[in-house]
Amino acid sequence: MKRFIATLTIVLSSFVFTTAIFADGHAEPRTSALETYFCSYNDRKGPADLLKVASEWDDWAQDNTSQNYAGYLLSPVVTNGSDFPFDSLWLGATEDHESLGISVDEWLAKGTKLQKKFDSVWTCDSHGFMTSIEARPYPKLGQAGFLQISACQFNEGYSLSDLMAADAKWTSWMDENGMPGGIYRWIPGIGAPRADKTDYYNVYVTESLAERGFAHDMMIKGAFGVAQTMYAGMSECDNPRIWHAQPAGGKSES
Length: 254
Fold this sequence. Notes:
Elements: E1 31-41, H1 47-64, E2 69-78, E3 88-94, H2 97-110, H3 112-121, E4 122-136, E5 145-154, H4 160-177, E6 182-188, E7 200-206, H5 209-231, E8 235-237, E9 241-251
Helix pairs in contact: 1-3, 4-5
C-alpha cells in the first residue's frame, strides 16, 4: 500500500481557517498537522493528575510557544483493551507541519521542567506525526467531544483522490439529510510502526454519544446503503473505537 505523506496546510482545532480555490472552483480541503503520544498512567496516577500538569502547561504555552497549538487528552470509551495496551493518548494540533516542528523545538528547548512533571504522571513510549484532512467540519472544534476512529487500507487501484471525491458526495448527503457530526481523515506519517499498513484513519466526531447514536440509527435505516454506493470497494477498515477528547489547553490567536 502506498503511504500518503500529505503536504497540505490549513487549520484543524479551534484556529482560524484559510481556504484556497482549485481551478475547477472547489475549495481545497482544510488540513492540519497532528502529533500523538501513546501513554499509560504511572502507579496511583490518573486523568485528574494529568490535567493538573496540563493546566501548568497551558499557562507555560502562553509565554513560551510562538505557534497556535491545541492539546487534547483522549480517553477510551468503547474499545478493546487487548488491541490498545495503553491508557490514554495525547493529541496536539497545529496549523501545518512547520508550525508543529517549531512547537516541538520550543518544547525541547524550554519545557524540560514541565516534561518531568508529565513523566511523573504517565509513561509515553510512542510519539508520532500525522496530517489531518477535513472532509466535513465539526462545528464545535476546540470543545470536548467523542471521536469514533477506524484504521483503513485502500484496495488496489484506489487512492486518496478517490476517497476525497467520495467524501464530497457523502458529506453533501449528510448535509441534505441532517446527519450530525464532523469527518476527518488522519494520514499516518513519521513515527508510525514499521509493520503498520494503515493508509488513513477514518475519524467521525460528535458532541455526545447520543448524537453518535442518532447518526448510527440513520445508517441502519438506509444511510449504509447510500454510503456503500459512494465508497464501494474503495477501502477495508477495521472495527471502530470510540474515544473521548478533553481539551487540555494550548495557545490560539485571540
